[in-house]
User: Fold these one by one.
Assistant:
Number 1:
Amino acid sequence: MATRRLPNWADVVFVPLLSILIAFAISGFVIWAVGHDPVQAMQIMVRGALGSTYGWGFTLYYATNFVFTGLAVAVAFQARLFNIGGEGQALLGGLGVALVCLYIPWPHWSMALVAAMLGAALFGAAWASVPGYLQARRGSHIVITTIMFNFIAAALLNWALVTRLRPTGSMDPSSPRFPAETRLPRMHEMLEVFGIPFSRATPANITVLVALLACVLVWFLLWRTRLGYQIRAFGHSEPAAVYAGISPVRITMYVMLISGALAGLMAINSVLGAQERLVMNAVEGAGFIGIAVALMGRSHPFGVLLAALLFGFLYQGGGELAFELSIPRELVVVIQALVILFTGALDNLVRMPVQAVWARFGRGRG
Amino acid sequence: MGMDAQTERREAAASQPAGGDVPPAIELRGICKAFGPVQANKDIDIRVERGTIHGIIGENGAGKSTLMSILYGFYRADAGEILIGGRPTVIPDSQAAIRAGIGMVFQHFKLVENFTVLENVVLGAEEGRLLRPSLAKARRLLADLAREYELNVDPDAVISELSVGHQQRVEILKALYRQADILILDEPTGVLTPAEADHLFRILDGLRREGKTIILITHKLREIMRVTDRVSVMRRGEMVATLTTAETGPPELAELMVGRKVLLRVDKTPATPGRQVLRVEDLRMTDSKGVERIKGISLDVRAGEILGIAGVAGNGQSELLEVLAGLAPGRGRAWIGQEELDLTCRISDGQTRRQSQVAHVPEDRQRRGLIMDFFAWENMALGYHHDPAYNRGPLMMDNRAILRDAGEKMERFDVRPPNPHLTAESFSGGNQQKLVLAREIERSPELLLVGQPTRGVDIGAIEFIHQRLIALRDAGKAILLVSVELDEIMSLSDRIAVMFDGRIMGERMGGQTDERELGLMMAGMSGEAL
């Protein structure tokens, strides 16, 4: 007798799409209100993000970041844990990458990549393990502790860069450039093999493939393994999980380790792939965008992939918009915020009416 | 007292106008209500005469609650008419229902726990901006009502300190304070001891004498027979019959409810208890708030017998199940056969209990027993997800094997529809329970812990579930049954232990006791004194 469930396609495609359209409509209104043409603005965004291989390169680069942080949040969501600490975990992941690449000589980029992935995942997981432990054993709310750990991570990185990693004499609080052997293949180099021309000026690199692989692996973990079964059972109903003999402490720890590792892996893309050194603000807020990505992707790896692409588009297109239309940079953030608001926070605003309409008109009356 | 009520009821029925003169208190004409494709109420007609107790009976999902929700303004009917006292009335919300003189006592009380009785009664019906005059008025009125109807409650008591029976009286007082002429009670006896239920029925009798009209929604045939003048039976959203209670009986009502003949009694042969399977010595349990819930319980269950634990909800039975199932820590000692169980929960949990051949059908299937968003087949692996037959290698689950096994078990337990790809949520209460039972019983455990096996389950499924439990017993397994339905305890158990306030008040052999004796123990009398 409760509201009938929506069919799957409506749940994962139609409702988010409708939310985005509403968000864009309001954004259009805002752009119009500050004196610009919304249609022109939209054209600039689409052209800027998707109209050239240069635009695509950046869109994919951002999307790759968001896939990792989005997956991190999504895995935790599956266990009903709200890991807001993606930002800090990714920062620490960056530190892991930097240490691995600076202090161990690697003969080839592929070995450096694997080692950096291990370092990033390990550091990210370690950073997430403390809030995880506090939640599991002490009941300290994970939202609070992970937020606090973001600040601690930023301070820790600051300290490491300024006092330890910065080359003597440098004014810039960043690590030295990684050795040339660790340089990951860029998008244009990879596509060159197939004879496809691609802009050389973009940071997109082989990590795109790692992100795709991560999506598949997370899906496999959640729906094909016993651990995934236990994670989902715990997330849907803790009393039922306890009944089944699934230990909340153990699952919370596992999930936070996996989540932290995924967030940490983001550093492969930004620190190793793009900047090739560790800088102060290596994460650029991707940890927080990951929350919106996971919400919009309904905590499903493939939903996360699509949502990450959308946010990659918004990031790159928004940047172009600020550049070309002298629209203040803040307004671009407003547009991104509207999308987050409608797809994440106000999900039910659209979902409920759609559900009501479905209940009334969907399928023949029985 | 039983005889008196009987004759009284006849008189009341006889003194009713033959029709026409006095309009019925409530008349519903052609009420229809659909939720999407589900027709919850189909063309319902019902007349409830003034000054009578009118029972509405039907299985879960028959549409009783929907109908009453329409009457109380929670839902709007798609079609049909409501006449109150002969006047067509539109009831868009509960405020309108209250104005029309309708009061509702919900199954789950809607009281503010940390308010006093008086404050709860006045809540929402305050007059003016200052509270004091309303409270004073309520105090006077409450005193009158207490005298008239045996509705005594201390007006200054805080709700959370009252027994469930008293809380229910507060709900009735709330309705009367709002000058309700028509009182709707939704499953009012679910949480009461037999004695408290008796008291409630006396109150209802008194209210009827004063000319109030009462609608009693229940699934217990006994109560219908006991207090109502007329009874309407609902089945699958339709009103199938309205009968004069004195002219019908439980078998006919059960048949009307289910649509086929139903066995009301469980067929079973005498038990042949074998070796001791479960032994418990001086079990104690303190909950997270520091309240001692179990205060030293010793018992044993043998192979091939059902030990029923009777008692009013909240006297430690749930905690007993939880401790034995390894879900909550307790103190004391317990053995399964020769193996001692760890009751501390430090090295044991639901998994280790399953390894000790203990299966558990939890009281709350929707919170514990099933994951409502999971498919039926995924639920079939809940708790048995380490079973090698369900796994491929050290990490992966063999979803196909689980699916196949789930399909077979659902077939054998007559789960309808037998489709393992549906989420647990989409099954009816009875079929959800069958899913849990199929999962636990098909493992053929040495000891089965069962809590409220038929709560919220329709009559047809109750029959089936009881047969399965008896079959497991006859296969030589031990069963510990906890239920607040005394009928169920009495018809299934070979031995009955009664719990009150965390202790066992006494034990009786199944066939050698009666409801009165058990009722006294449930109210806290020691079994030895009886």
Note: The radius of gyration of chain B is 25 Å.
Number 2:
Amino acid sequence: MEQRPRSFYCLAAFFCLFLLFLYGPTLTIGILSFQGKGGGLTFPMRGVSLNWFRELFEQQAVGDIWGSFRRSLALGLMVMVSTVVVSVMAGLAFRKKFAGSTVLFYLAITSLVIPSILVSLGVGLIFNQLGLKVHWTSSGFGSQLTWTLPFGLLIIFAVFNRFDKSYEEAARDQGATSWQTIRHVILPIIAPSLIGVALFGFTLSYDEFARTLLTAGSYNTLPLEIFGMTTNVTTPVIYALGTLTTLFSLAIIGVFLLIVWIVGKRRSRVGSDAGKAV
Amino acid sequence: MGKSRDIIAYLQAAPLMAVLLAFLVVPIGMIVVVSFWGATEFSIYPAFQFDNYAFLFGSPVTYKVFFATFKYAFITWIFTLSIGFTVAYFLAFHVRTQAMQTALFLLCTIPFLTSNIIRMISWIPFLGRNGIANQTLISWGLIDEPLEWLLYSDFSVILAFVHLYTLFMVVPIFNTMMRIDKSLIEAAYDNGATGLQTLWHVIVPLTKPGIMIGTIFVVTLVMGDFITVRFMSGSQKANVGRLISNDIALLQYPSAAATAVVLLCTVLIVIGVLLRFVNIRKEL
């Protein structure tokens, strides 16, 4: 192996600093959430305790955190499933270049880049004028989809751009119907990427704030609850909550990565019939 | 055959179309309509008047706030681009094994999948009056008194933007860099180009599409933001998004809608210009 150039070490150092920049603050509140009972929002630590985590579990201390957590979880799952299904279907449609596909594509891009507060405001106004009550399962759900679907779609595009069409042609040559081709050839091949879409769908929804703000109604999702806390909670209890929800996100990411890894393993073990010919 | 193919395609695209119609197109239409309505202190009423726009364009605050919005977008863009490009360059050209590349790339991506609000809150113990930054600087003897401008200032707002959105530069730039044919770089070296010359004349031009996509993300996210500015400036600074959210809080929906329409047009013009430089679908 050739010698590393000097630029490598400079860039590697820069990269490490970047990681420190990304993770440092989060680690800091991780540490500070174990602040002692009399401690404040900054260092020094006045002892170490689980006091602030305990307060989180005492309902009356800090609003309806667990209710909002359950809602965010349910909403995240709803958004996740819809994102995977809708963006795969749309991805299949886009491969056929139907009339109007360009318009739909740019609409999806607009949905991604439009200031979130506009979606929030617009959906809120519509529900208001129709005399409907905004609720996280209806208006909140739809508003979040305008954020997660374009991401799902972009990932699916990237997947299909790299997709070897000869697999499909082989299936068709052997007499598979188009549904059979999708079900038994395309979906299994793109499965790992679908896990990625699902992960994006869930986490983007779980952390979504701006588009849910005016559309969640009287029952807050977790990010809205946390934001409410920032204005009136001045103790490390907010760090404790931040630490827990970040750990939860990390656990979810871990589970998804594990699934991808297992699928990949299985595939390399049973996916090939090389050497098994009679 | 051709006909039924088309019908299937429309059926497959229908759910996406339905969501975008119901939760994007119609709401935006509604905003445009309401921007011409009138408002009393307690309610809004249908009308066709230009009062909201007249007030908006007649107020010097509007211009100041739009200027601040562009300022945030521009400064954040400079920082996210230089940091994002450097990180992507390191990952694409200096990390040799694919496993290591994937691992480091994941490390960069994970924070993006955690809560933005928590990531903003996490700067408080760093930047506060008695925060880590001030304590460190004092203990090094660089300053005698805590710096007041670290938190709740333009500095902290931009820092948070860079922290939250650099990833949106790293991913598309990395993606384009990975598609650069390595033999082009070897050719440049073989012809006697120095490392910097190769970087500037070969890699940067070939990375432009990625840079454009990253730019679109960062610029639109910053221009449409209201929460980062509010939180990180301790409500002391304003951008257009905050103008809108303040109006909403006061139930002045028509005025909020008019500001929203102007913001939307501004963002779409910026995107329109940027899209002239890149074909997104080809770059995925």
Note: The mean pLDDT of chain A is 86.
